[in-house]
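Lecture 7, part B: from sequences to assemblies.

Below are the input chains for today's worked example.
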Amino acid sequence: MGNVLTIILQRLTLGLLTLLIVSIVIFVAVNLLPGDFAQSILGQGATPEAVASIREDLGLDQPMVTRYFDWLGGVLRGDLGTSFAQANFASFTGTDSGATTVAQQIAPRFANTMFLAMITAIIAVPFSIFLGVLAALYRNTVFDRATNIFTLSSISSPEFFLAYILILFLAVLNPIFPSLSNIFEGMPFGERVEKSMLPALTLTLVVTAHMMRMTRAAIINLLASPYIEMARLKGLSPMRVIVKHALPNALAPIINVIALNLAYLITGVVVVEVVFVYPGIGQLFVDSVKIRDIPVVQACCLIFATAFILLNLTADIMSILSNPRLRHPK
Amino acid sequence: MHGISRRGLLQTGVAAGVLGLSGMPLRAQTRGGKLTAGLSGANTSDSWDGRTHSDLFMIASAHGTVFDCLTEVAADGSLKGELAESWEASADAKTWMFNLRQGVTFHNGKSFGADDVIESLQMHVAEGAKSAAQPIVAAISEMTKVTDHQVQFTLANGNADFPYLMSDYHILMFPAGQIEEAIANGIGTGLYQVQSFDPGVRMVATRYADHYKGDSAGFFDEIEYIAINDNTARMNALMTGQVDAINRIDFKTEALLRANPALRIQEVTGNQHYSFPMLTDTSPYDDVNVRKALKYGINRQEMVDKILLGHGQVANDTPIGPANQYYAADMEQLEYDPDQAKFYLQQAGLDSLNIDLSASNAAFEGAVDAAQLFQSSAASGGININVVQEPADGYWSNVWLKKPFCACYWSGRATEDWMFSTSYEAGVPWNDSQWDEKDSARFQELLITARAELDSEIRRQQYGEMQQILRDEGGVLIPMFANYVQAVNNRISSPDMVGNLWQMDNARMAERWSVA
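Predicted structure of the full complex, as structure tokens:
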């Protein structure tokens, strides 16, 4: 087991380095975009004096390197800063008391995104493994082909298109689910689930193909091995052969793909959230990029990057743990 | 046609007839129910601070629902008192006495009076405050509390429109001494009291039981505004019945909305206009003949048809629109005429003209297309326009007011003077054509005299002349007024006359609409 711990430590260290690089890239990229916070918040009212006064208030008149290290210093102390928008309002009212920090601003949005990811995962993971197993069992039949065509065409379509198709069939023609997922704090759980159903189904369509195809391929790959032949010769039913004998050995690659897709559910929801007006972190991210609110953009990116790193790490560890040969290396 | 019984139809028919005869509004407005609207223009940086409001979501939430101003522009464009009951001016329109409504309370129970007015106005000129209403308040040289419910304003220069300016959606009335708290929690004197507000997501308010407007306004029990910035999502929400009303419908899918019998489309022409300002202090636009050539080189009707898809009206290079009191509707319309364009080019001593036109869809939806249409219509007049597509980001800082010829939009103003003094008075920061005495001393002179003129007939002549000057010589090409187009579910009833100053019945649907 010491082996696993070393890997975890190594990966976490590398992960921190990745986060640092991500933060630099994002910081530079956002600064390269034309316009800055002062200009975009003032819009048509961007007189030179007003722009200068906002820049001065927010420290945007400082050189980029200084601003980056100020921000980094804050993050190392666990302070993600105050969003420009909030700080700007605070300067209006004259006090800092009303300003919310980036962390406070992101927390409820992040919780919403996690909620959606969770619902999607609950639907998508069993669904795609089930489909994958069935496709392996009835490989090269009409069922297999149909499943493949369906999942591949849904992964190949843009998300907003899938979203509108679902809205058309499940909200407009057959009003089963609401097309607007405006969940809010204090909404009863049942209603929350109902409102999140269409975005969850859209995301399910997006992630199913990958997991289902991997399940199918991994199982089929094993079906040629001698021990499967043995099981068949014993007279076991095909279903039992696949679920009891093939699946456990195929888990490592499947878990890997599941983890990758879960990461996607957190980081890739931007479009789906905008289409369904779901108040998650993706919407906040889009809004913040629009007004060049760098502290919020940075924090969102860090969260996305962390999700990717942690889920990838989990995938590797799970595949080690699920494989006795890796668990007990010679 | 189910849902309406014959008896029900007869009853409402008779009732409507009776009401029609007695001269009362045709639609009796029922109390109760809820209005859910999907509105664009929301942002996570929104707050209850009126000084920062610039787009529909917060204007409808604050100005239209939770807060009040001193005065209010009615749907027909006339001015009526809101928190001010009446007002009178001195003969030079310099001193204004406002009599405030008595017995009004804020949602936290504090009673409303003169101190609240003075402090709420001072917010806009406070040190470091970046209020869009700063120029309005800065023009007040002195505010005096005469009694608890009387305030006297002394202006630096006479302004007959001063009460109109007090209806500005930025100038909300906050409780004195508790302004920070009021900004944090949304405490106003409006018809509805905030229940929950999640910036960029949603606002819910319920009817304030003991409101001074009584039974004459605010018919819903509850208001919910949902932030839907995405056009298609807003359409979907309305089509699937999750919201009762949406603003800014997408013209491309308008036919779908029209085909739905449960919905109706509201369309009003107001002062919102799309423009192409030229800097009159820069060559070649400093030559009035070049400007005239361009005025004849633009095909206005084609722009209304193709850019607005018919949802607008041709304009005459003046920013004064149908929602203004002194709009010169009968002024002769400038028409597309390439020969005239050539003629004025010759007058300017030119055979042909090569110019750059900067455009981006940040200026208005379809601005780049409009610039290209302009390019092709102007070509027959010997004017070669090179369309420069600018990035949308930073357009207002880097292009507008900087490039000599660009695309722009204005939502217009309630009064002529307000519009002119925002963008046509010599030296003001938003003067996007650098229009001043060098172009027309007469215009600037009229601007000052008309401002202090209390006689409405004289003002009509003065503003008429100013519109004529702008049409003939002005530095801003204004080809079209763009309509406000919104859609409403038939579950909700709205008055026959809907305000045209701003989207969604001047953003006052919570006050004026009711359950059908």
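Note for the exam: The domain at 273-482 of chain B is CATH 3.10.105.10 (Dipeptide-binding Protein; domain 3). Keep this in mind when comparing with the next example.
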